[in-house]
Write a structure and sequence with these properties.
The protein has 4 helices and 9 strands; from the N terminus they run βααβαβββββββα. By secondary structure, it is mainly beta. The radius of gyration is 22 Å and the shape is elongated. It starts with a strand and ends with a helix. The relative contact order is 0.23.
Length: 222
């Protein structure tokens, strides 16, 4: 089971933020903050405290992020409220199959990496990939072994973005190896955080867990 935000992306992408100088390390008083206060790198720690997000909600970015718009505390409060309101529970049982009509004149074997990209809950842009050894002819295709896998989330710096915080499970196995109905099953369990980027700092205002699996059928992906 996983919890997702079905409409959050459309909301957060319509907002922006202003940039400023490097963030102060010490949290200051929040008495002067209001809904109209613009969030900057100078007050990001105060804002996190003001919104009861906790000191650990502020993290360093790998790269600085810029935007021509500004985000106020009131804007962020609306996003947080909408995120909490639209949470729901769904299963990820991704067993879809795609039609692959390509023909092979000669038998081929080797190693291949295949990908599947999707918007989890129509909001979180995730990509799953697996690497495996395979065999293919004009009449059959199948996986033999699996050699690797990956899970990623497109950050979509806008200035709200998603990032994987923790991966608890990432297991890829071949089911029905060496047979025409073979597939690689990628099982996963990971935490995704939603952030507001402010220069080289970010505030995490939401985190959720994604749990499930995705199947990569040899007849479809090879």
């Amino acid at each position: 089971m996983k919890k997702i935000i079905a409409t959050m992306l459309a909301i957060v992408m319509s907002l922006g933020f202003g940039t400023s100088a490097f963030a102060a390390e010490n949290v200051k008083t929040t008495s002067n903050l209001t809904d109209s206060t613009i969030i900057t790198d100078n007050n990001v720690y105060e804002v996190a405290e003001y919104l009861d997000l906790g000191a650990n909600a502020v993290v360093k970015n790998d790269n600085k992020m810029y935007s021509t718009k500004k985000v106020t505390i009131g804007d962020l409060k609306k996003v947080i409220a909408q995120a909490n309101y639209t949470k729901t529970l769904i299963d990820i049982n991704d067993d879809r199959q795609i039609l692959n009509n390509s023909l092979r004149e000669d038998s081929v074997s080797g190693t291949k990496t295949v990908y599947y990209s999707t918007n989890v809950g129509n909001s979180i842009p995730a990509t799953y990939s697996v690497t495996g050894t395979y065999y293919s002819t004009s009449y059959t295709r199948y996986w033999k072994t699996v050699t690797g896998s990956s899970i990623s989330v497109d950050p979509t710096y806008a200035p709200y973005f998603f990032k994987i915080d923790n991966i608890h499970k990432q297991d890829a196995t071949v089911v029905n190896a060496y047979r025409s109905n073979s597939y690689i099953k990628l099982e996963y369990n990971y935490d995704v955080g939603a952030y507001l980027g402010v220069d080289d700092l970010s505030i995490r205002y939401w985190q959720d867990n994604i749990n499930g699996y995705t199947n990569f059928y040899g007849q479809d992906y090879i």
